[in-house]
Amino acid sequence: MAACLKRWVGDSIYGFDLGCGDGELIYQLGLLLPESKWEGVEISDYRVSIQQRDVCIWQGDMLAETYRDYNVLHADNLCLDEMVADRLEAKIALEFKGLYITYRRPENMDFLKRAIYLDTVLTETTWTTHPIHFYYLN
Ligand SMILES: C[S@@+](CC[C@H](N)C(=O)[O-])C[C@H]1O[C@@H](n2cnc3c(N)ncnc32)[C@H](O)[C@@H]1O
Q1: What is the CA(17)–ligand 1 centre distance, in A?
Q2: Most ligand 1 atoms within 8 A of CB, residue of 29, 44, 88, 122 to mutate
Q3: Fewer CB within 10 A of the end CB, N or C, for the chain?
Q4: Do the strands 37-42 and 56-59 form a parallel or antiparallel pair, or are they unpaired?
Q5: Which CATH number fits domain 2-137: 3.40.50.150, 3.30.465.10, 3.90.180.10, 3.40.50.720?
Q6: Nearest to 17 by CA among 1, 8, 53, 3
Q7: Residue whose CA is closest, atom 14 of ligand 1?
Q8: How far is the CA of 45 from the centre of ligand 1 (A)?
Q9: Share of the chain above pLDDT 70, in %
Q10: Which of 39, 43, 51 has most ligand 1 atoms within 8 Å of CB, for mutation?
């Protein structure tokens, strides 16, 4: 798995979780991908305050961040209103190139129809253990 991902993004994995909750997912991704570096932004003060893992997360709005520095992105916010979801999708399509990690399938997101599907891994998240899919966006 790690070898397959490194083939797509190189040795230095620098990932960003948009809406990271308490940071559990990026902690687990760090275990899954040794030597990778992860950060997360979360809009809820409360969720940031219940952080238990030693990960770099902060309170903020994902739409106010830049995604250009990262080569791995995770964004899954199933409850976003349509306007915010559209802005997020447009921002990712405009700013980001690299590995994209999501619970979603291309039928839910137009820009994923152009992505290369790589793999699916069962992963512990803030909420539950869930299959997440890995894609490459170029
Ligand atoms: C489904 S949870 C995902 C948590 C974590 N990424 C995971 O997969 O385990 C979505 C999170 O996105 C946060 N969120 C929603 N809108 C946001 C925004 N505009 N900026 C940052 N976080 C946001 C929510 O508060 C929630 O904690």
Answers
A1: 8
A2: 44
A3: C
A4: parallel
A5: 3.40.50.150
A6: 53
A7: 19
A8: 11
A9: 93
A10: 43
Across the chain, what does the average pLDDT equal? 88
Stronger pLDDT, 30 or 10, i.e. the higher one: 30
**What is residue 102's predicted lDDT score, i.e. its pLDDT?**
84
Domain chopping of the chain, boundaries:
2-137
Nearest CA to ligand 1 atom 6: 20
Q: Residue 37 has which token pair? A: 């570096």
| In contact, 136 and 102? CB cutoff 8 Å | no
Whose alpha carbon is nearest atom 23 of ligand 1?
A: 19
